[in-house]
Automatic annotation (TrEMBL), chain A:
The UniProt record lists the keyword ATP-binding: yes
Family: Belongs to the ABC transporter superfamily.
Name assigned to this protein: Phosphate ABC transporter ATP-binding protein, PhoT family
UniProt feature coiled coil, ranges: none
Membrane topology per record: Peripheral membrane protein
UniProtKB/TrEMBL annotation, chain B:
Keyword Transport annotated: yes
Protein keywords: Membrane, Transmembrane, Transmembrane helix, Transport
Pfam families attached to this UniProt entry: BPD_transp_1
InterPro entries with a match to the protein in the record: ABC_perm_TupB-like (IPR049783), MetI-like (IPR000515), MetI-like_sf (IPR035906)
Protein name: Tungstate transport system permease protein
Amino acid sequence: MVTQTILPLRLRDARVRKNGRVIVGPVDYELPADGFTIVIGPNGAGKTTLLRMMHGMERLASGAVEWQVAEKRARERQAFVFQIPVMMRRNVLENVAYPMQLHGSSRKQARAEAARWLELIGLAEAAERPAPVLSGGERQKLALARALIRKPEILFLDEPCASLDGRAMREIEAVLQSAHSEGTRIVMSTHDMGQARRLASDVLFVHRGRIHEDGPAARFFEHPQTPEARAFLQGDIVE
Amino acid sequence: MNDILQGLLEAGRLVVTLDPDLIEISIRSLEVTLSAVLISSLLGIPFGAWLAVKRFRHRRAAIAVLNALMGLPPVVVGLVVYLMLSRSGPFGVFGLLFTPAAMIIAQVIILTPLIASIAHQAMREMWAEYHDLLISLNTTRWQRIKALVWDGRRALLTASLAGFGRGIGEVGAIMIVGGNIDNATRVLTTAIALETGKGDFALALGLGFVLIGLAIAVNWLIHILSRTEVSGQW
């Protein structure tokens, strides 16, 4: 049986309003089916809200977020990794197994698959430890394994490497590149320009709640089209 | 001071000699209160969790009412249950008045709001923590409640133990609906009230110490069985 892809994702005149103020939008954008998209922009530009909006976690004030399939089916094939990962009050293995159990796998099946993922991300020895006592890097790896265990078609990540040391960041990036090479579409926000250059195939530059510029990473980094993007890349303060 | 010492001695005597009356009313106390706690927990915990995850129009008012119901006067509850179960009442046909079942019903009414309210508080904090993850995982409301209740089970145990604490020491409602009938509905608290009325303070105090000991023992046993305060647990 051929499974229909949920991509591309289309945002049509989408806006998110909070406390009476539009904080993201209007956004008209089509996210292509392939690629590793990096979302960058100054603090408070709306990167997190844009990702949450794409994932369907923000109520739209207007417009639409459209997938190739019905929203319910599309939601089942997405995953999200938060900047501060949520650690369920269970052990590491059960945290990773949880999404599989939600969708009908038996406990045994889910635990076996979770154990395989823990091996892959180097957390096998921590399997029986309570998740909330893990270090920052370990938490983020756990969150990544939990997001990838159901092989999502698209994975959103909100600054997953913020406040991680170099080694943890390298390990996370390796997992992301491996997932991407196996066909997972990735959309990730970051503050780290080095990381953006290493990973991005295309870039979304967000400024004042709008997608200010988008395109292939090489072109964006070499020839930014707007003064704001140029200033941002030069390390100037962008208001 | 002398009375307290005599009470302690009397408590010791009752326990050491395994006084049959003491054993009987202690078992009945536990049966009534543990049954009421179990039923109240089955009702109150899911309700508290549901209230934490569900948004509806009069939610704040519902929480305020629930919190207010924690302070329900047991005597009033006893009176209402009495009227409901008495021969002329709507449930008189079941013949439950002056039976342990009536005492359990009264205690369920008293304990459910208490357990639900404490459970709601614990679940609300967990929901704030879990919200983004469970929404992102596209969980149903039932799956959310299940995850919160399972992961918060140790906090919820506190809610049930608070219910047990209130139930085991409760006297007003069960005195009215149970009638404090010897060999039928007499429990530790109603026996204490009776002995105090008769002026036998040593025996009343002795039963009081047994009651306190029993409450501590049940709490301790539940903590042991549920492995709280063990490293690596929550």
